[in-house]
Write a structure and sequence with these properties.
Blueprint lengths: L2 E7 L4 H4 L13 H16 L6 E4 L3 H13 L7 E3 L16 H8 L1 H9 L33 H21 L4 E5 L1 H12 L3 H5 L9 E5 L11 E2 L2 H12 L5
Helix pairs in contact: 2-3, 4-5, 6-7
Bound molecules: (2R)-2,3-diphosphoglyceric acid (DG2).
Length: about 250
């Protein structure tokens, strides 16, 4: 049996466009982001990769991307499950800050450590910061982080993946996960069993479906999966990698 899992990062968000660290801040998609999401859905349809169930975060850029893409693929009717566990990595005190300015202020090494190291979180957010989430009703009863590194994201995504997502795959459903650059990197790290150095080099482009076909042990048949538009994905990933450089 082969299981099908599709990972989809949301389309360009308002803060992707303005080059700001976003994390758990609930910013909308831009017009370009909506168009990217539509194209992502068209790719699903063209390649006949039709999701039976969708999982999203609690953030509107992922929720709206899922809706736009599924609408374009004629699958808006499928069941949906949302969880904070698929939220973007909490970017701590960097939330709302401009990526280029942070790189200039703290230097390349610190900037890359905060963006791509596995185990070093960015500085914690002040609970009174305008971009803190501790009073947000959608997280009532759930722990709201003050900052997360990718290892923290793996720790919160893994149990959810195993308890909520794996059973749907085992039941033969094509599963779509519409989420974020770093929550999807956590899933890629798990699926491909990547080292900390390997995952540091992985960048997820916006709104291009990444298909994983998995064997019985949930090992990818093709390591790193397959983007449904590989050329656009390579260009998109390079643009993400270059963020903060200018
Ligand atoms: C971005 C990822 O998350 O940023 O939080 O700024 O996928 O929700 O747009 P997303 C953010 P980088 O880690 O790539 O800087």
């Amino acid at each position: 049996m082969t299981y099908k899992l599709v990972l989809l990062r949301h389309g360009q968000s308002a803060w992707n466009k303005t080059n700001q660290f976003t994390g758990w801040v609930d910013v909308p998609l831009t017009e370009q982001g909506e168009a990217e999401a539509k194209r992502g859905g068209e790719l699903l349809k063209e390649k006949n990769v039709l999701p039976d169930i969708v999982f999203t975060s609690l953030l509107r850029r992922a929720i709206n991307t899922a809706n736009i893409a599924l609408d374009a693929a004629d699958r808006l009717w499928i069941p949906v499950e949302r969880s904070w566990r698929l939220n973007e990595r909490h970017y701590g005190a960097l939330q709302g800050k401009n990526k280029t300015e942070i790189r200039q202020e703290y230097g390349d090494e610190k900037f890359m450590l905060w963006r791509r190291s596995y185990a070093t979180p960015p500085p914690e957010i002040d609970p009174d910061d305008q971009y803190a989430q501790n009073h947000d009703p959608r997280y009532a009863g759930d722990p709201v982080p003050e900052a997360e590194c990718l290892a923290n994201v793996v720790d919160r995504v893994k149990p959810y993946f195993e308890s909520a997502i794996e059973p749907e795959l085992r039941a033969g459903k094509t599963v779509l996960i519409a989420a974020h650059g770093n929550s999807l990197r956590a899933i890629v790290k798990m699926l491909d069993n990547l080292s900390e150095d390997e995952i540091a080099k992985v960048n997820i482009p916006t709104a291009i479906p990444l298909l994983y076909e998995l064997d019985d042990d949930f090992k990818p048949i093709k390591p790193r999966g397959e983007y449904l538009d590989p050329e656009a994905a390579a260009a998109g990933a390079a643009a993400v990698a270059a963020q903060g450089q200018k």
